[in-house]
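Slide 14.
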Amino acid sequence: MAAVTSPETSPQPRVYFQTVAAGSTEEPEIPVRKQGRVTVKYDRKELRKRLNLEEWIIDQLTALYNCEEEAIPELEIDVDELLDMPSDDDRGARVKDLLIDCYKPTEDFVSGLLDKIRGMQKLTTPQKK
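Slide 15: predicted structure.
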């Protein structure tokens, strides 16, 4: 194993090698690639669905507000909140409330969003076993 000294301790960087005793049978440790924390906690397929949904929402809001993504009014469409609601009517009413300042018709966006979230799962942190 090599170690490089920091520039604060020495004007020139130096490399030191860790030596292994001649009779040692230790093998160098091979790093094991682990799955990322996020994909361990959540289903990768469900994360992909969420990402696709978020991209679709941004595209639709850009068209509805007729502006660039950065200029879209600050609004938060919380998919988990919508999934907690008992019916599509409640979900639709909540989304329409969020889009109250949009001057274009929002019915197609609302119905498309409700179709896309149907069958999705909430992203809750799994309990440790």
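Speaker note: The first helix runs from residue 37 to 41.
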